[in-house]
Specification:
The complex is a heterodimer of chains A (499) and B (328). With 499 residues, chain A is mainly α. Chain A is built from 21 helices and four strands. In chain A, the strands form two sheets. In chain A, strands 1-2 form a two-stranded antiparallel ribbon. In chain A, helix 4 runs antiparallel to helix 8, helix 8 packs parallel to helix 10 and helix 11 packs across helix 14. Chain B has one domain: Orthogonal Bundle (Ribonucleotide Reductase, subunit A). Chain B starts with 17 loop residues before the first helix and ends in a 5-residue tail after the last helix. Chain B is an all-alpha fold. In chain B, helix 8 packs antiparallel against helix 11. The chains are: A mainly alpha (499), B mainly alpha (328). Bound molecules: fe (ii) ion (2 copies) and zinc ion. The site of one fe (ii) ion (FE2) has 3 residues of chain A, from helix 9.
Chain lengths: 499, 328
Amino acid sequence: MAKKLNIKDKYRLLTRDLDWEFSYVDRKDAFPFEEFEGIKITDWSKWEDPFRLTMDSYWKYQAEKEKKLYAIFDAFSQNNGHLNVSDPRYVNALKLFLTGVSPLEYQAYQGFAHVGRQFGGVGARVACQMQAIDELRHVQTQIHAMSHYNKFFDGFQDYSHMHDRVWYLSVPKSFFNDARAAGPFEFMVAIGFSFEYVLTNLLFVPFMSGAAHNGDMATVTFGFSAQSDEARHMTLGLEVIKFLLEQHEDNVPIVQKWIDKWFWRGTRLLTIVAMMMDYMLPNKVMSWKEAWEVYFEEAGGSLFKDLARYGIKMPKYAETIEKEKEHVSHQAWWIFYTHGHAAGFHTWIPSDEELDWLSEKYPDTFDKYYRPRWELAKEMEAKGERFYTKALPQLCTTCQIPMGFTEMDDPTQVCYRDSVYKGDRYHFCSDGCKDIFDDEPEKYVQSWLPVHQIFQGNCGGPDVENVLSDFYRMNLGEDNMDMKGSPDEKRWKQWKGVA
Amino acid sequence: MTIEIKTATLEPVRNTYAHIERRFGDKPATRYQEATYDVQSEKYFHYRPLWQPEKELNDPSRTAIKMKDWYDFKDPRQFYYGAYVQQRAKMQEVAENNYAFFEKRNLMACLPDGMEAKIIKYLIPLRHLEQGANLNNMYACSYGYGTAITQACLYNGMDRLGIAQYLSRIGLIIDGNTGDSLAEAKQAWMNDAIWQGIRAAVEKMIITEDWFEVLVAQDVVLDCLMHELFYVQFDQWLQDNGAQDIGMLTEFMQVWAKDNNRWIDATLKIAAAESTENKALLETWVSDWKQVISEALSPLAAEMLGSDALALAESALDKRLMKAGLFK
Ligand SMILES: [Fe+2]
Ligand SMILES: [Fe+2]
Ligand SMILES: [Zn+2]
């Protein structure tokens, strides 16, 4: 009678034991990137497998999920599911998702494939490979989920081309480029831990519950379907941190520095989510401020209490971040509203009801600083003078967001920081972004800043119009400008039979 | 509330994404097309990788193979993630039934004397070779260019991990879950003279720099020779010697090879047809690796199957190379 193997032993035999010590070549040539970041790994065998999934079970579970998911996609398009969304403005959140977030899933696939080849420890490697294939799943299911929307709404059609070029999309693109350009351990702290473990809930829960509240079955379904993958990714992220911290005490300051960096970069990236939640969802889920409090301050707070025993502290600038939750969504939507002619989705003035909701959710800041802007915008729109700014914004060299954020202690004062490197001056939106630059200037001087590139004539021209239509391939008058009067709006009214 | 929808008003504005339309025209696209073409970022990368500053993050020059369009590497199976896992799930279901039946009937006990030792010595060590194949395909996946070929390499890499796990389970059936047979097979892989040549070749492949060369060495040359020796000839030997039931445990690998060959043969053919330079390069790689691997496999093949086994395997490889347009 065969003895029963427990899961841990079985997984060890089926995975970890496949590796062998090389005799004919130098191991360092096979895994050459393990040392240059200064991280010390003394014993890969101490790696605890975060999940123990063999390939046969992986195929089986994932196939079941795909079968259900695609059945719903099929039904969604057969039944013209897009007609069930709350309001056509909602679809603009999806445009932002497909152009800004789905390509990040692709970069996650590439990044995890890279570390899934390069880590010397077989346990870590295999876990990363599984995440790589999951991330490929995410980008492909998102493309398929949006495929139906693309047939009926503008702004989805050239998401990949746009992601490589458009000014605001360089924010998410450069975030992931930064992580992938880093060494394998920084990548894991950046994406596996900071992004997947701590910040992912702030990205996916708002989008998915936003979808649920706004009648978007396709998005809800892929979101839920991705949940069990995400659970695996989160355990991997946590294992990476613990493993690095337990391997050697010299790793602690390096990991802390990466945590500081990636939290700051992560919160900057989440600005688009903040704006989406507060302004783009016709049926609101919760305010960005509330989401931040639940998913970061509470959940993140207890996580960092846990990590304190390794000597890890709360990320630097946590206090600044806490103040920002009152402001960023309003400042970001204002940037997009005023640059609405250069955006690949529609923008609009919040309705009176929505303005009241914002006043209620942000009692300390909205009426004081932001409501007056919208009241003014309303007056101008009523006079037929919908406001678009002519100027191109200056971008922060690190996060690449237009320099529109204010000092958090004085929301009337735009925040400017700068550094001089090799005789050139570089500009930043915050102390956080300046610190990141100052630590690795030779990396960030390479930033492909879209506005600089336009001024240097690298994006066609001569006018902004030409850049938008030829270089970005936006269909002007269709993809961009205000929601009011857009072809999206006209079609919607036709479908719904309203004048 | 009921909404009256006139079908005429629901004409789509477009049939598919713009980049798909630019490639295939304004018509509905397949899921494979939308999931594959032009998904990878092409231009305007922000930072050079610290681990390879001479290259861009996504850079076609990580191989000497040149393609005008890396999306020419269409997978004849049209595997995107969903299609891939569903296809493999079907295969694993059959495998699961086979393994369950094999264990329930205790078919290992019905093998002729000495057969278990042969399986441990010749078949189980392949789990390490598969692990090497996993690394090599992950290498091609992560250094390769364009979603078409890199996703297929990823699927292959994951397949190899799965195959390594099936091979390990054969060992666990033999040793009643003690892991002894796996340890014995690993000993053979590490120390047995007949395995050292091929282990050295695999290790060398793992540190080879050009990812397309790695793909040729692993997925074309080594896989073909290995398949012919172990899953065709050794399988035949098992059948001839009363151990045909082992075929139930290797059916997955048999079916897999057929499926995978469709892709790798097409890939080779497309790369060779692109230019005479590519063709010449592929021929050099194939010749070099064929020599290395044949030499490495020769003592193993001779001991396991006899002196003409390797030549037979080589001729199978040559046939496939011809079909792919090489050496003619
Ligand atoms: Fe993902
Ligand atoms: Fe994830
Ligand atoms: Zn910044």
